[in-house]
Amino acid sequence: MSIKNELIEHFEGLTLPENLLPLISFDDEVASDAYFSEGFEFSIDQEKLGLKTYSESKDFLNSIYEFASADASGSSYGFWLKDGNRNLENAPIVAFGSEGGYHVVARNFNELLQILTFDCEPMIEWDSVCYYRDPDDYEPSEHSGEYCAWLKVRGIEQTEDANEIVKEAQQEYQESFSNWFSKFYEE
């Protein structure tokens, strides 16, 4: 089964973001052989093994829909179905670190797409998340230019400050996400 079909099945009953399926098609057609943004790769963990390290509660597991790897070490991105919202277009995007940590990184899918133009893996720790690339040691992902051009056609501009997007998303959602999360997981 293709990743596109897996994602459609995974998101059954949910309203998908307008740019999700076109991005999957872009990834299949243009970037199937290499990254368009460092560390980002569509993936589905049907068994939700990573999430189950935090909680096995059905309420928890049914409220987070992981859909992509955030880095090469097992960190992930997911939609948070805040307050039972079934529309993923405006669902906050959360990141889970492979070594722990959970943070809101974008207010919606389009903001994540903008973060991905920064072309680096997130550094996710228990207390923080940030996007950093060393300007003296940065090499763009093989298909980052095509990705940025693809996004621009959709009215989404490239960012030079992914952390500003994260900051704004966290101002709006991190406290409520942390409060909700604490019902299922105690550090």
What is the approximate shape? globular
* Class by alpha and beta content: alpha+beta
In the predicted model, the low-confidence regions spanning at least 5 consecutive residues are none
Q: Mind summarizing the main beta sheet?
A: 5 strands, antiparallel
Tally of distinct domains: 1
Overall description:
There is one protein chain. This protein is an alpha+beta fold. It has one domain. The chain is built from 7 helices and 7 strands. It has helices at residues 3-10, 20-29, 49-52, 58-61, 109-116, 144-153, 162-181; strands spanning 41-42, 64-69, 76-80, 93-96, 102-106, 122-124, 129-131. Strands 1-2-3-4-5 form a 5-stranded antiparallel beta sheet. A hairpin with a 4-residue loop joins strand 6 and strand 7. The chain is globular.
Summarize the structure.
Helices cover 34% and strands 15% of the residues.
Topology readout:
Elements: H1 3-10, H2 20-29, E1 41-42, H3 49-52, H4 58-61, E2 64-69, E3 76-80, E4 93-96, E5 102-106, H5 109-116, E6 122-124, E7 129-131, H6 144-153, H7 162-181
Antiparallel strand pairs: 1-2, 2-3, 3-4, 4-5, 6-7
Helix pairs in contact: 5-7
Question: Features of this protein?
Answer:
187 residues; alpha+beta; five-stranded antiparallel sheet; two-stranded antiparallel ribbon; 7 helices; globular; SMI1 / KNR4 family (SUKH-1)
